[in-house]
């Protein structure tokens, strides 16, 4: 099975930069990853995940400027693109924190509306609706399970993704610097307990007064950190061996010993 090259584009979400300029910069960075198989961007980079007061004005449908720019960039680079997430103005009149996956032809391949909203009755939790669907996407080498930021704290979602066939768990995030230790520990835990790759792309910089942690990571199915970014904006690249998922699950078959909530066989 061929190895896969993944690029995590750790963007500096600077809200002083106009959104059209940020979109153009993000698209240019995606195009620069031509030759990669999968590119991943952070959560809510078009508006800033902590800038909840701006969500209503920034909301767009899935044919809007961000989705259009990302579709074109994916096609130009010939890559699978997890375009991070945006504030979706949905047909049901609600707004969602929605992650988008595009194929190398620029066509939409998957959409995931964030299930667990952060804020404890404030911020995102107050102004956005929560998704309900567990979403996976079959790529040529690996099946991806999609998740967003605060979802990382809820292992039951990742078990559902595992049971849906996920072999690599994508976490697009805007995780704050003050909880960096939790970020690193939880990413490794999700990899270990599901024997899956974890591909976690976080934001850099400071927006809405909240310093971001950066430290995007790739963790292998044994829980080893394959690659880790620092705090500033950068592109983190790693090469995945899809066979490592099968091999790890066969050599250490812990998943077959599940008792609670074990899927039917």
UniProtKB/TrEMBL annotation:
Database matches in SUPFAM superfamilies: Carbon-nitrogen hydrolase
Domain of life, source organism: Bacteria
Keyword Ribonucleoprotein belongs to the record: no
Domain CN hydrolase: 4-242
Record bears the keyword S-adenosyl-L-methionine: no
Keywords (A to Z) from UniProt: Hydrolase
Pfam families cross-referenced by the UniProt entry: CN_hydrolase
InterPro entries: C-N_Hydrolase, C-N_Hydrolase_sf, UPF0012_CS
Single GO molecular function: hydrolase activity
Family classification: Belongs to the carbon-nitrogen hydrolase superfamily. NIT1/NIT2 family.
Stated name of the protein: Hydrolase
């Amino acid at each position: 099975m061929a190895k896969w090259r993944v690029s995590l584009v750790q963007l500096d979400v600077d809200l002083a930069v106009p959104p059209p300029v940020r979109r153009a910069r993000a698209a240019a960075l995606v195009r620069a990853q031509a030759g990669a198989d999968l590119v991943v961007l952070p959560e809510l980079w078009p508006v800033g995940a902590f800038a909840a007061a701006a969500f209503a004005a920034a909301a767009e449908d899935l044919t809007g400027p961000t989705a259009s720019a990302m579709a074109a960039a994916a096609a130009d680079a010939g890559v699978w693109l997890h375009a991070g997430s945006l504030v979706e103005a949905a047909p049901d009149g609600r707004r969602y924190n929605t992650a988008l996956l595009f194929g190398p032809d620029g066509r939409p391949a998957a959409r995931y509306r964030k299930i667990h909203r952060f804020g404890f009755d404030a911020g995102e939790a107050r102004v956005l609706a929560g998704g309900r669907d567990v979403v996976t996407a079959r790529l040529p080498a690996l099946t991806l399970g999609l998740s967003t930021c605060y979802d990382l704290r809820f292992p039951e979602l990742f078990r559902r993704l595992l049971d849906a066939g996920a072999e690599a768990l994508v976490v697009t995030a805007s995780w704050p610097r003050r909880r960096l230790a939790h970020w690193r520990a939880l990413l490794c835990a999700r990899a270990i307990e599901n024997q899956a790759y974890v591909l976690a792309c976080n934001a850099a910089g400071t927006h809405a007064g909240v310093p971001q942690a950066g430290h995007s990571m790739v963790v292998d199915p044994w829980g080893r950190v394959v690659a880790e970014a620092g705090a500033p904006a950068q592109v983190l690249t790693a090469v995945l061996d899809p066979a490592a998922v099968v091999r790890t699950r066969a050599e250490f078959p812990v998943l077959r010993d599940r008792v609670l909530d074990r899927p039917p066989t």
